[in-house]
């Protein structure tokens, strides 16, 4: 399939959610490249989706694509030298188009693995140590990450890989703006929530003495356009259900969007009734129903405006308008979630008709604003 025009402002998740067959990534990476989507994102799951391996697959299949570890979570599970080596290897493989995305992870997974729960101190130290290793400095460190003496990566990189941080709340958004190269906003963010979040990121950068325009802001857009009802239920409704299962996460989404949180206990109770006996699962998205009838019933419970304003649904033109609204709100880039890349053709085709030309100047590396 011939590659179309390149869109560096767009990214697509490879194998979103819990998966069992990593070989499916091969077709997804090829479809992402064929559509001209600028970057492929690898979400870390400790099952059959190891981000180190999948990044290597992407680098081999599509060396022109940006590759993002999106996201490395529960950071204390990895020694910084291991992650530094992973990032350096991928950056060498694909000519410096690698970016490392990190998130806070979940408290339940931290507790299950016996590792520390993430806080700003751990995140900040982790970012600092990684950058120093990538600059091939000798690192001596004593702190919550452990004790390192004369630690050095031993490889020269033309440019330090950028680091993106997933952020939701006001405090985290401002903190990320002050330290990260890029910021990733959560799924279900409405255009109004995107606008508020971008302002907080820029404010945090300015207060830290940085150029606010140097931080690249991505927002995730759950997308199901020109697809069957079953795909819509799986990619949109079921994904919302997985967020609903984590109270702190869904409360943060409601706060960010100014949604009525008084509806949430009833929604969560109804979902529990549909799910029945909970599955034994740590990550969440393998623990909730896949039954289409139950998903239809759950879809009827959610306020329609939550889905319509927080996602891209309908036709390809509807999806392109949802994209446009997020760029108008101040986002620099949009990360598709849910749809298989092959099902994004209608959205990308319509987006090409209304896309602002200034986006051509964005680098393929998803963590940089400037080449």
How is this structure best summarized?
The protein has 371 residues and is α/β, with parallel strands linked by helices. 44% of the residues lie in helices and 18% in strands.
Question: Any chance you could write out the topology, listing elements then pairs?
Answer:
Blueprint: E1 7-14, H1 24-35, E2 37-42, H2 51-61, E3 66-72, H3 80-93, E4 98-102, H4 107-113, H5 120-134, E5 139-143, E6 146-151, E7 163-167, H6 170-179, E8 182-185, H7 191-207, E9 216-225, H8 229-244, H9 247-257, H10 264-275, H11 292-301, H12 304-310, E10 311-314, H13 316-328, E11 333-338, H14 345-354
Parallel strand pairs: 1-2, 1-11, 2-3, 3-4, 4-7, 7-8, 8-9, 9-10, 9-11
Antiparallel strand pairs: 5-6
Helix pairs in contact: 1-2, 3-5, 6-7, 8-11, 13-14
């Amino acid at each position: 399939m011939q590659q179309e025009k390149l869109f560096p402002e767009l990214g697509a998740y490879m194998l979103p959610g819990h998966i069992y067959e990593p070989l499916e990534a091969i077709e997804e990476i090829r479809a992402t490249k064929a559509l001209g989507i600028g970057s492929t994102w690898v979400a870390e799951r400790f099952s059959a989706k190891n981000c180190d391996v999948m990044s290597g697959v992407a680098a081999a299949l599509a060396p022109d694509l940006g590759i993002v570890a999106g996201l490395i979570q529960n950071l204390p599970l990895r020694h910084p030298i291991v992650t530094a080596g992973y990032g350096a290897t991928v950056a060498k493989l694909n000519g410096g188009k690698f970016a490392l995305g990190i998130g806070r992870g979940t408290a339940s997974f931290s507790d299950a693995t016996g590792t520390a729960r993430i806080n700003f101190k751990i995140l900040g130290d982790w970012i600092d140590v990684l950058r120093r290793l990538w600059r091939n400095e000798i690192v001596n460190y004593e702190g919550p990450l452990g004790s390192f003496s004369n630690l050095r990566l031993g490889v020269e990189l033309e440019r330090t890989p950028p680091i993106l941080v997933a952020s939701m709340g006001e405090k985290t958004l401002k903190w990320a703006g002050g330290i990260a190269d890029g910021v990733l906003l959560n799924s279900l963010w409405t255009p109004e929530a995107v606008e508020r979040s971008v302002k907080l990121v820029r404010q945090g950068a300015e207060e830290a003495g940085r150029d606010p325009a140097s931080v690249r802001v991505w927002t995730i857009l759950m997308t199901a356009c020109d697809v069957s009802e079953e795909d819509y239920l799986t990619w949109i409704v079921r994904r919302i259900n997985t967020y609903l299962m984590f109270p702190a996460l869904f409360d943060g989404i409601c706060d960010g969007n100014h949604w009525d949180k008084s509806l949430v206990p009833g929604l969560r109770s109804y979902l529990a009734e549909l799910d029945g006996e909970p599955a034994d699962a740590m990550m969440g998205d393998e623990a909730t129903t896949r039954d289409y009838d139950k998903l239809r019933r759950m879809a009827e419970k959610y306020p329609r405006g939550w889905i319509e304003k927080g996602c891209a649904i309908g036709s390809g033109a509807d999806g392109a308008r949802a994209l446009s609204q997020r760029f108008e709100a101040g986002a620099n880039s949009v990360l598709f979630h849910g749809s298989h890349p092959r099902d994004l053709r209608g959205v990308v085709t319509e987006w090409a008709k209304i896309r602002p030309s200034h986006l051509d100047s964005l680098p393929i590396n998803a963590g940089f604003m400037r080449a």
